[in-house]
TrEMBL record:
It comes from Bacillus glycinifermentans. Residues 43-62 bind DNA. The keyword Transcription regulation applies. This is TetR/AcrR family transcriptional regulator. PANTHER family: HTH-TYPE TRANSCRIPTIONAL REGULATOR PKSA (PTHR30055:SF226), HTH-TYPE TRANSCRIPTIONAL REGULATOR RUTR (PTHR30055). Keywords: DNA-binding, Repressor, Transcription, Transcription regulation. Residues 20-80 form the HTH tetR-type domain.
Length: 207
């Protein structure tokens, strides 16, 4: 009797929906459509269809395309921050710094998907002022990580004469360049190339 009652309960009671998880799922659909077809194809209707939602349900989460893009862009930043928070700092300074900076680079499928979406949103932010604060937040985060990397390597090498601002700019430019070239020319700038170039540059800073 209990089993029958439980089946009836499961069938007829409304299911509890984790709205934040649902929004993340929708944002991930946006990333995948960007990767496959480009940002111009990310209409609210198309994303709703890909996510298996009705137009009405989609509007419940994101009333318009702008809100959809803002959330999808913010999720990239949140995922990067979450990976950094989960890191364990147990290696040498050079190893720890390298692992920190790799969180911003497309060295696996998850980060590749994020980076392709991020670059599309960055381009969109040139004409959409609502996306600019998110672009600024991420760029400042990358710059800060580069600065901390340079300072840590200079300290571990016992090199007080290193020009921290200049080396920070060099490392920041390197991270940006590797990310962009990896997305545009994945056959030329592979995950192995990213790792090798970054390792070589950090080694030069630690000398």
């Amino acid at each position: 009797m209990y089993e029958v009652a439980q089946v009836c309960y499961n069938e007829y009671m409304p299911k509890i929906v984790d709205h934040e998880k649902q929004k993340e799922k929708i944002a991930e659909v946006v990333w995948k459509v960007i990767q496959r077809e480009g940002l111009d194809h990310c209409t609210v209707r198309k994303i709703a269809e890909e996510a298996g939602l009705s137009a009405g349900a989609m509007r419940h989460y994101f009333p318009n395309q702008s809100q959809l893009f803002i959330y999808s862009m913010q999720l990239v930043t949140n995922r990067v921050k979450a990976r950094i928070e989960r890191m364990t700092w147990t290696g040498t300074p050079a190893d720890d710094v390298k692992q920190l900076l790799l969180q911003f680079l497309p060295v696996d499928e998850e980060r590749k998907l994020e980076m392709e979406a991020w670059l599309s949103f960055t381009a969109k932010s040139l004409s959409d002022p609502e996306l600019r604060p998110l672009r600024k937040e991420m760029n400042e985060g990358i710059y800060s990580a580069c600065q901390k990397a340079v300072e840590a390597l200079a300290q571990s090498a016992g090199n007080p004469d290193i020009d921290v601002p200049m080396e920070t700019e060099r490392l920041y430019a390197l991270i940006d360049g590797l990310a962009l070239h990896s997305v545009l020319e994945p056959g030329q700038v592979s995950q192995e190339v990213i790792d090798s170039v970054l390792t070589s540059h950090l080694k030069s800073l630690a000398m």
